[in-house]
Structure of Short-chain dehydrogenase:
Amino acid sequence: MVFISFIVLNLILALLYRTYCKLTYGINKCSRHLVGKVVIVTGSSSGIGYETAKDLAERGARVILACINDLHGNKARDQIISESGNQDVHYRQLDLASFDSVRRFAEEFIKTENRLDILINNAGVLVVDNVKTENGLFVGMQTNHFGPFLLTKLLLPLIKSSAPSRIINVTSIAYSKGIIDFNNLNLEKETSQSYSKMQAYKNSKLCNVLMTTELARRLEGTGVTANCLHPGFVKTDILNPDKLPFSKYWLPFASFFIKTPREGAQTSIYLAVSPEVENVTGCYFADCQVKTLTETGRNTELARRLWEESEKIIAKK
Ligand SMILES: *[C@@H]1O[C@H](CO)[C@@H](O)[C@H](O)[C@H]1NC(C)=O
Ligand SMILES: *[C@@H]1O[C@H](CO)[C@@H](O)[C@H](O)[C@H]1NC(C)=O
């Protein structure tokens, strides 16, 4: 009897906690339309990227889904067109782990589009093995940092000429545990024993934060804003139970509390559309609110140097 009461009590507590979570998640309340605006969302064939792209399509934007897989990309496009009723949704292939692919994508884009109002660097990988790309960089670092860095750089002239425009980077609260070691930026020095998948993720997410800081500084006065965000803990394919460094039994349990992709997309959408943030740049957001960065995240000297080192690394390839 005591045991049953204990279970029931826990279930009630869990439900209350879940309700509390759901009520405190930041929700974008701005209903602004985006007719005439051109948007890129990377990694938009599923999860947060998909929900973000769909919402922006519903607002009438011309939406480009930049995804790695033709099959998934085309399927997402068809689905968004049918759900939003907006025909102006397109898929273009982009593999952030290949500099050739990034260059091809950007060249093609600049040739065929005459503006870019909103760039959402959403794509990312969580846990990947210590494997190198065709460019000799580690997959995790290239997909999460060097690839989007190059993409943003190549598209910047078009973004500037479309000002006021916005660049939005999806990072993660995991950035606060990231480490920047300029002698080991690409984790070259890790052996297969010392390489930690989670550490690689944290480092790459700290890079995103620092790049936002530096990009915002470089873009001062151009009418282009650059902000980054933590989407929250969201149930998407990135949480692959086979690859996570903790028990797979944790996932169904946690899924009860964590955000749905639609909830996870709210801060990206807010930063893309809200007039409240039209003059806000270089900030870190979560739940549609500005949050304070850690000391490392705010370190402008570190940010400047990371930019320069990253430029050297992409120039060599
Ligand atoms: C987003 O992150 C990428 C990769 O780190 C970087 O190149 C780009 O400048 C960043 N953009 C913003 C707005 O922070
Ligand atoms: C942003 O800046 C412009 C120009 O200075 C100003 O007119 C506008 O009211 C500002 N918007 C907000 C939300 O502060």
About this structure: The beta strands are 38-42, 62-67, 89-93, 118-121, 165-170, 224-230, 284-286, 289-291. The CA atoms of residues 52 and 265 lie 5 Å apart.
